[in-house]
Design brief:
Helices cover 61% and strands 11% of the residues. It contains 8 helices and 3 strands. Strands 1-2-3 form a 3-stranded mixed sheet, covered by helices on one side. A hairpin with a 2-residue loop joins strand 1 and strand 2. The chain is globular and about 60 Å long.
């Protein structure tokens, strides 16, 4: 059986499908069936989360090689999303957010712009755009969108992004990403 490479887009589509099914369950008229299905889902999440947590513990116990493997798993698109879902990602949100501007900085600089990370507080990322082609609003908006995409790619659990140096109109149009949350596990 050949292995299939999954992307973060696949993961996001599956999460959207699951979220839709959860909403349908929550809206079900029969409360007994609804409660049973939700409890089943929560139990499966707890089981999977505990299993993934133990898997990472076993890998980590193998020493430097295991820790390097865990870091590699955190960089894989699909596995990274899964680890985030269960609160097991090896890198914290700030570390992941710090990597995003580096991915787009050469492009930003080639267009007369740059970005400065001001803070990451409670899932909210604060940035400052600099340069942006002598204040051209459309350039600032394009650069802002590029930075947002890079941040959400490395840290999809970011709750919101606030950007200084973008017009009020562009700031009002900013996209907020709903934070993925896992059902708390009983350990």
């Amino acid at each position: 059986m050949p292995l299939t490479r999954h992307t973060s887009n696949d993961f996001q589509q599956r999460m959207q499908r699951i979220e839709g099914l959860i909403h349908r369950l929550e809206a079900a008229a029969d409360s007994e069936t609804r409660n049973c299905a939700l409890e089943l889902m929560q139990s499966l999440m707890e089981l999977h989360g505990a299993g993934l947590d133990r898997l990472l513990e076993i890998i980590a116990e193998s020493g430097e090689t295991g820790l390097a493997l865990i870091d590699e798993l955190g960089r894989d698109e699909l596995v990274s999303g899964l680890l985030l879902l269960y609160g097991l990602h090896p890198a914290d949100i700030e570390t992941r957010v710090l990597k995003a501007p580096d991915q787009v900085r050469p492009y930003l600089q080639s267009h007369g712009g740059n970005v400065e990370l001001l803070a990451v507080t409670e899932g909210i990322v604060r940035l400052r755009l600099r340069g942006t082609c002598n204040g051209c609003a459309s350039s600032a908006e394009t650069l802002r969108q590029l930075i947002e995409e890079a941040i959400f790619e490395t840290a999809p659990d970011v709750a919101a992004i606030e950007v200084e140096g973008v017009t009020a109109k562009a700031q009002a149009a900013m996209i907020s990403y709903v934070q993925l949350e896992c059902v708390p596990r009983g350990n």
